[in-house]
Write a structure and sequence with these properties.
This protein has 1141 residues and is α+β, with helices and mostly antiparallel strands. The chain is built from 29 helices and 49 strands. GO terms for molecular function: aminoacyl-tRNA ligase activity; ATP binding; metal ion binding; oxidoreductase activity.
Length: 1141
């Protein structure tokens, strides 16, 4: 019977447990009269009590509530957030900004400003003034106050220094008002934090901040209101079913927390590789990619013979002492040494050889046979070289590396360990030089992201010459030693039996020290910690190319006017203005239906990309252009638009977005027909180029337009390459035709522009670049009339009102040799700079067809740089041409970043170079979707790197240096530095270093500090061109913001990211959704506050007007003037009579 009783009791208990669990899973909410004691929940009780006055009761600000309740604010916020989880209360975040006085400012409030204290002391001293020591004794605060006060007195001309006596004498007769003290006192005495920011004008605040007397502090607090489950007292729900509940039956009335049956369990840690092992694996991969073979390094115990003697290290060397080396007690000596080799090493030490006299000391076998823990992996290197010299068949060139543990008897600190991993590499070959060693080291370090290196002569017993390797540490802001290197001495190589003309170069580095560089840490332990925290990957993950290819899909919708807020972070209030960006957006012709009342209706509706191959372009560059415009409203306090009574949208911290196609004549024609009409470039796009530049991706390719001149159906002006805003005008540019003029607010198309009649012919071939002269506030355009024998360059220059400058009527012309295909340029104070690659022209094809892919080919030879004197300068239009040194790549399709003139007259320009002759693959994948794999992308894209070119016009010397060999795109500078000397370059960067990958992250080069910082998004996110946006009131070169359109290929959406220009590596401070998937674009601009600061209402009205005008079939065209008309030109005739032409 006992077993049966036990079974019955077990059944009853299990029944109650099961019923209780069911009760709990249903989430029945039974009230419990037992609540937490006041001692345990006093703050919560106070909060709930404050809300008990009725449904509308609130706590306006938790900060004021905590002060009145004499409770720490953090405790109040914590309790509020705890109550939110059970819906007792609802929270609304509040942000309060106010100024806080520094300790120096508090001292000024008490004693007066430093300059007034100094002045009062000088006035008291009379006309004789005071010497330095006397002044320090007379002024409250002593020398520290005098240092600041004297400088400000001299600056304000309140005092002067007597030249004869050197004493400081007052320059005014009476005391002056202490404005600084008065301002600080008013700040300190403000009635509230809010008033604290209103008692002074903006200039006064700025002056105090410059002196670091005040700082603007942001405090976050919350407004609290009743939640949907509000109750005067909180009831705690039980989280677990206990034995006591089952025994007492209290589980029936106890409220339980609901089970979340969909939650995942806690991840089980399965162990991880040590961060330094991950680094070691990455280094091994890089060295193998460089052609090195790994040496066997599994022996930690070595003899002194291999560790020291074979390296020609004297037996009396201090490193062989016990305080530097760990010697083995058992077995203490080795019994395995090659005797013949031993004798040759002994002879070299005692008597010398190969031009050396040796050490002239007795070589002791007892010292050579001592066992030790190896102090470097060079012990293995010497054994490998000995085997290499004595291999059957004789010597062969070799590259060896090792990454393994070494041991030193060191005192441990941040940069020294007694046990660490060492990277060692050596190259043995005929007639190697020091240049080979430096090149090998630079290549290795560049692959791991360390680009700033220096080499310092050094001494090593077994290398000559020897060099220490230093790298610039971006966190420590200094050069730090990271390795040693040199060429092995003949005294080491000769005993091995290597041929006389064989040289061996070698280098060794410490992995933990290099990890400190890679992870941005200053010591070995913090490097390891950084790696363990998630930084162990030296590079971002490879790009998701399927996600990238989704960025080449037609945008079937436009955005007329939309007000958006950030979904991440907050937009800074001093970011005000409008950002424009242009790019191809329609890849299937006729994918946007014409207005309802159009005379011509398309025969077929828009179709998704890929469904009708006959409607698709063969290269993204042939896609119709669209413009994205994003206006930043700052704090919303923008003047303009409407009367005072007109209601305004709340635009603080928001942007107004527009996205609209450029209504080119070709776009309108294909839109009405619903089919592709322009096929002139298709044969060029399917040609397999030998240079990788002709059909380049994603930057505009070298072949940009058909070579048949004039207005014709072979040359389709897509107006998709660059958006330019200057002189209150917005233009979109394309290489090969006139720009289009757009309304800057609504983005509606006004028509083609001949730049106010300066461009005389409608069929002129204009370039897709406009360069800014920031010092004179001018803009320059160019065009090239291309002919096979010679071409003509036309350079146009306009003032700030977009009028041709008076000098030379704003136009200079120059003859260029041969067929000149030039797609970019830069300007300095006096010159315009162009680079012309040398082309081979097929005369017959050029005469008959003029297809770029069949008519011309890029020659593998030196390009020409043309320096053209600008209008208004001496010898305007005069051109000097020089050859750029040829290094295997012809410097074609350069993308200029900026140019300037140095003090000695040297013209310096930075540019992104397409190294077309070094492309990958033997075929081009032009099938849509484009670039869906890395192989497909690399078949269409060239290697791109950042270079600096220097041109000496007087001496006729041109030089060039690679700034970075990593894959970069879209280089820009702060537009205020355009045409002037610049320090910083911002660019889009590929995520795999030197490997060819699409633009993805943002990188910043400091050309003076020789440093670089980068930020990379997720593998499926891709940034376009970075654009520098000036910050209100800031004149520094990197004090503003970086804007870029980020395409999310996984979700097929786009957003604008905002980064701080002086802290790119920290990533975006704000992300703003655009609302549609904007395809990968090209170039844009940022129009700052005073030029493009429109209200949302102004933009909305203009956008509605544009939509209404288009729906009525009106299109305004600019005809050789700055005014709009309805002229009928050749393009318009084509639109109506295209089938007959």
């Amino acid at each position: 019977m006992i077993p049966s009783k036990i079974a019955l009791e077990y059944y009853c208990v299990w029944f109650h447990v099961e019923e209780a669990l069911l009760h709990k899973s249903r989430g029945d909410r039974l009230l419990d009269t037992t609540t937490m004691s006041k001692n345990a929940s006093g703050v919560e009780s106070s909060i709930l009590s404050a809300l008990s006055g009725g449904p509308d009761a609130t706590i306006p600000d938790t900060f004021a509530f905590s002060a009145s309740s004499n409770v720490d604010h953090n405790s109040v916020v914590g309790s509020c957030k705890s109550l939110v989880t059970d819906a007792y209360v609802a929270l609304a975040e509040l942000t309060t900004q106010f100024y806080v006085l520094s300790s120096e400012a508090e001292d000024i409030v008490e004693h007066g400003s430093q300059e007034v204290r100094v002045l009062n002391a000088l006035l008291a001293a009379g006309k004789d003034g005071l010497g330095a020591e006397e002044l320090e004794s007379a002024v409250v605060g002593g020398g520290a106050v005098c240092k600041i006060g004297v400088g400000n007195c001299l600056k304000n001309r309140w005092a002067r220094k007597d030249r004869a006596s050197g004493r400081l004498v007052a320059s005014v007769d009476v005391a002056v008002a202490d404005e600084v003290r008065d301002r600080l006192y008013r700040l300190k005495s403000a009635s509230s934090d809010v008033e604290n920011t209103k008692v002074l004008d903006d200039g006064a605040y700025a002056a105090l901040k410059r002196r670091k007397l005040v700082s603007l502090v942001t405090r976050k607090s919350y407004a609290v209101s009743r939640g949907p489950r509000y109750a005067p007292a909180r009831t705690r729900k039980a989280a677990d079913l206990t034995r006591e509940m089952l025994e007492s039956g209290s589980w029936r009335t106890t409220p339980f927390k609901e089970y979340n049956f969909r939650t995942l369990g806690e991840a089980v840690g399965g162990g991880h590789l040590h961060p330094l092992l991950k680094v070691r694996a990455e280094f091994r991969k890089i060295l193998m990619e460089m052609g090195f073979e790994e040496m066997p390094t599994d022996k930690w115990v070595e003899s002194s013979f291999w560790n020291f003697d074979t390296l020609f290290q004297p037996q009396s060397h201090p490193a062989r002492d016990a305080h530097d080396t760990f010697f083995i007690k058992e077995p203490a000596t080795t019994i395995s040494i090659p005797e013949e080799y031993y004798e040759r090493v002994k002879t070299m030490h005692e008597r010398g050889g190969s031009g050396s006299i040796g050490y002239r000391t007795v070589f002791q076998r007892e010292e050579a046979t001592k066992n030790l823990l190896r102090t470097h992996t060079t012990a293995i290197s010497s054994q490998m070289l000995y085997k290499l010299a004595n291999r059957p068949g004789g010597f062969r060139p070799a590259r060896y590396f090792s990454i393994d543990r070494v041991f030193r008897n060191e005192s441990m600190d941040a940069t020294h360990l007694c046990e660490f991993h060492q990277v060692e590499g050596l190259v043995a070959d005929y007639n190697l030089s020091l240049g080979d060693l430096i090149g090998t080291i630079e290549t290795f370090f560049r692959k791991i992201g360390i680009t700033q290196l220096r080499f310092k002569p050094a001494f090593n017993p077994y290398t000559e010459p020897s060099m220490e390797v230093f790298g610039y540490h971006p966190d420590l802001k200094k050069w730090t030693e990271i390795g040693n290197s040199g060429m092995f001495r003949p005294e080491m190589l000769a005993p091995m039996g290597l041929p006389k003309d064989v040289r061996v170069i070698a280098c060794e580095f410490c992995i933990p020290v290099m990890s400190g560089f890679v992870f941005g840490s200053s010591s070995m332990d913090t490097a390891a910690a950084a790696a363990a925290a998630g930084g162990a990957a030296l590079r971002p993950p490879p790009p998701d190319m399927r996600a990238y290819s989704n960025g080449y899909k037609t945008a079937f919708a436009e955005i007329s006017c939309s007000l958006s807020s950030p979904t991440f972070g907050a937009l800074p209030p001093d970011l005000v203005g409008t950002y424009y960006r242009s790019g191809p957006a329609m890849f299937s012709a006729g994918s946007l239906l014409p207005p309802r009342n159009s005379l011509v209706r398309p025969k077929q509706p828009p179709v998704p990309d890929g469904r009708d191959v006959g409607r698709m372009v063969t290269h993204p560059f042939e896609g119709d252009g669209a413009v994205l415009a994003i206006t930043f409203h700052g704090d919303g306090g923008v003047a303009g638009g409407g009367g005072e009574e007109e209601p305004r949208a709340d635009t603080a911290g928001k942007v107004t977005t527009r996205f609209r196609y450029v209504r080119t004549n070709a776009f309108t024609n294909e839109r009405k027909r619903g089919k592709k009409l322009y096929t002139g470039m298709e044969s060029t796009r399917t040609v397999v180029p030998t240079d990788r530049v002709g059909n380049d991706l994603p930057l505009p390719p070298f072949h940009r337009h058909h070579l048949l001149p004039g207005l014709n159906k072979l040359r389709k002006n897509t107006s998709n390459t660059r958006a330019v805003y200057f002189g209150k005008r917005l233009l979109t540019l394309w290489s090969g035709g006139l720009p289009y003029k757009l309304d800057a607010l609504a983005l509606s198309t006004d028509g083609r522009s001949q730049l106010g009649g300066v461009v005389k012919r409608e069929d002129s071939s204009m370039g897709a670049k406009a360069a800014i002269d920031s010092r004179r506030n001018r803009i320059l355009f160019y065009g090239v009339d291309e002919e096979s024998g010679s071409s003509q360059l036309n350079l146009y220059e306009f003032n700030s009102k977009f009028q041709p400058i008076r000098d030379n009527d704003g136009v200079v012309q120059a003859k260029l040799p041969g067929l000149a295909m030039i797609y970019d340029f830069a300007v300095t104070e006096n010159y315009a700079v162009f680079v012309q690659p040398i082309l081979k022209v097929n005369g017959m094809q050029f005469m008959l067809r003029k297809d770029p892919g069949k008519s011309v080919s890029l020659e593998a030879e030196a390009s020409l740089v043309h320096i053209v004197a600008r209008a208004g300068s001496n010898n305007a239009g005069m051109m000097k041409s020089f050859q750029i040194p040829f290094d295997g790549s012809p410097d074609a399709n350069l993308q200029f970043v900026n140019a300037y003139e140095d003090e000695d007259g040297t013209i310096i320009f930075d540019a992104i170079r397409s190294d077309g002759m070094r492309g990958e693959g033997s075929s081009v994948d032009t099938q849509w979707p484009w670039a869906s794999t890395l192989t497909a992308f690399r078949s269409m894209s060239s290697k791109k790197s950042l270079w600096r070119y220097k041109v000496d016009p007087k001496g006729g010397v041109v030089s060039k240096d690679c700034i970075s060999n990593d894959q970069v795109y879209f280089g820009v500078v702060n537009s205020n530095a355009s045409g002037q000397k610049h320090r910083y370059v911002y660019a889009a960067a590929g995520c795999m270093g030197e490997d060819v990958t699409p633009p993805q992250g943002i990188t910043k080069f400091d050309l003076e500090g020789n440093t670089r910082e980068s930020w990379f998004p997720e593998a499926y996110e891709f940034c376009g061109e970075p654009m520098y946006a000036q910050r209100e009131g800031d004149d520094s070169e990197d004090g503003g913001y970086i804007l870029s359109v980020l395409f999310n290929g996984k979700e097929e959406s786009s957003e604008l990211v905002v980064l701080k220009a002086d802290d790119v590596s920290s990533g975006p401070i704000a992300r703003v959704p655009i609302g549609i998937a904007v395809p990968h674009g090209y170039h844009g601009c940022f129009a700052p506050t005073n030029e493009a600061n429109w209200t949302y209402e102004e933009i909305e009205r203009r956008a509605k007007l544009a939509d209404k005008m288009e729906s009525r079939g009106s299109m305004w065209n600019e005809v050789k003037s700055d005014f709009s008309g309805l002229g009928l030109r050749f393009d318009d005739m084509e639109e109506y009579f295209g089938d007959l032409m």
